[in-house]
């Protein structure tokens, strides 16, 4: 059971939750380094103690990378009177973990009673600094409650960690660990430890330093192979707290900067406060858990944000797990970027720049597939080369290129920042060239088909003319046409060809039902029996993909997402028809699905469904709804989808055609008010709505 405060989440009990669930939930990150809340002290294995760095990839096979598990910066062990809490005979009482969402501080506390009945209160606190991306800190406090004994603490930097690469195919489980770190060299002396390690091929060099201080006792070298450490010996006196601190820097200065745990935390807290000023959504709701759950989603989104670095992006699991090898997907552009676009435009700009910076690789990708222009990879890591193992997805899920163009245009539309316009014109034109070479012309019917593609719904096999992909590709072509009209140089025949594809590309449509058809095969698929589903565990775990792809069943939002991205292309009755036809046949086996359905349901006036889907998305990781938060990490796209459901769905924020923000609140039952800040066109606004009305203010002035 997770407990929800206003600004924190907590959990009670030792090993009382699904395996590794809390390690994911309490993961801390500043977008540069991220560390799962797994401790050696609890017996966590070398591949379970995970620390990742944005862009920290290295090769595991030719051309394919994994995100390197870095040395354990929070490494520590403690023994009290020769008993090791959590490991030797004895037991914990009052075991409690808390994540403070306001300042990113994680604490855990418990009383350890050893076999002789000696009781020791243990408190561990840690954070990763939001003020300086290189810094992190750990603090351990021990209080003997009914005894006087000797305690020994080891605080170090441990390179004895491993990677456990996760196969892209979600049905395959790997048990083979890989040593990604080599040549780890460490030293320890005078309260300091340092460790330098290389990743497998030498692509990364990781340099960690720490300064260890204590309130009492002695300190000496406690290093072992791969783990420079300080050994602290202290005499515990009854009811007196002994405190040890480890101040860590990762790839930072030679010595961790001055200060202590408290002062570093204060600085980090200030940086968090600035972020919260723009990101918080306040909700007055009957459900007491909702506010904290919403803040948890926002907190994790902020933790995902690459720290001022346009050469990295946001992995599908942020820095919380090595699932998908840490790779970047369309998740970033369509699910995560909107949050930053409206709350931190500079962060959104970096995400757009990442795609601009990887345009040369996108060109190479197109060329390697005998196509023209630039093609963005389904999954990427270092640069923009394809990292997807599986042919059907890696080769066929091509909508990502149009998603990237769509999101880049959203950046221009929402921020009004024209400084990237020229470079983005190039992106629009080069991606349009890719589409022009990817569509197949049928001379007999005089139409263009998009053959052998997979839409967002990955359960429908490889089909043709997936409506989502075709319509977004047309949008991409349209962006290129506009770039050309605005002066971007293209060859004279290109605009005509792009226009022809826009006009003659094929999408299934049933005029009688006003229904867009997902793809050419969709109506020929067999109906799926939805009866007897008791959990939200994905069906691909029990039904083979080959069987699944012949059923008329969707994995996740496909056309339902499209009507939200390009609402002006559909009439109200077409939108309603899409919802009525596709929503009942969607399994939501991707975490990307619930939030999008919540948003769509809100917009289409389906209040109950909107709230039900919103709750699934909002509590997806908190309540381990898909059963894989522990083993796969935090689902970053679902966080962003929850934000979109709240802001675009329930608040109805829109910039319309004019760029002037407006709201159309559709507050769920039980919500009496909602407030948030946002940026648009370079201005900062505050939106507020109650059951009686709404307002948008700029610098305190009501504008609407
Ligand atoms: C989803 C994709 C998503 C990927 C990474 C898959 O299960 O179907 O849409 O991009 O996970 O989150």
Short description:
The chain is α+β, with helices and mostly antiparallel strands and 704 residues long. It contains 18 helices and 30 strands.
How do the helices and strands line up, and which of them pair or pack?
Elements: E1 2-4, E2 8-12, H1 21-25, E3 28-29, E4 33-35, E5 51-53, E6 57-61, E7 64-67, E8 76-80, E9 90-100, E10 106-114, E11 119-128, E12 135-144, E13 149-156, E14 181-189, E15 192-199, E16 205-214, E17 218-221, E18 229-236, E19 241-250, H2 261-279, E20 281-285, H3 290-304, H4 330-343, H5 345-357, H6 359-368, H7 391-396, H8 399-415, H9 421-438, E21 440-442, E22 447-449, H10 467-485, H11 494-504, E23 508-510, E24 515-517, E25 526-527, H12 545-548, E26 551-552, H13 559-565, H14 572-582, H15 593-603, H16 607-618, H17 629-632, H18 636-650, E27 671-680, E28 683-690, E29 694-698, E30 701-702
Parallel strand pairs: 25-26
Antiparallel strand pairs: 1-2, 2-9, 3-4, 4-5, 6-7, 8-13, 9-10, 10-11, 11-12, 12-19, 13-18, 14-15, 15-16, 16-19, 17-18, 20-27, 21-22, 23-24, 27-28, 28-29, 29-30
Helix pairs in contact: 3-18, 4-5, 4-8, 4-18, 5-8, 8-9, 8-10, 9-10, 10-11, 13-15, 15-16, 15-18, 16-18
The structure holds beta-D-glucopyranose.
Beta-D-glucopyranose binds next to α4.
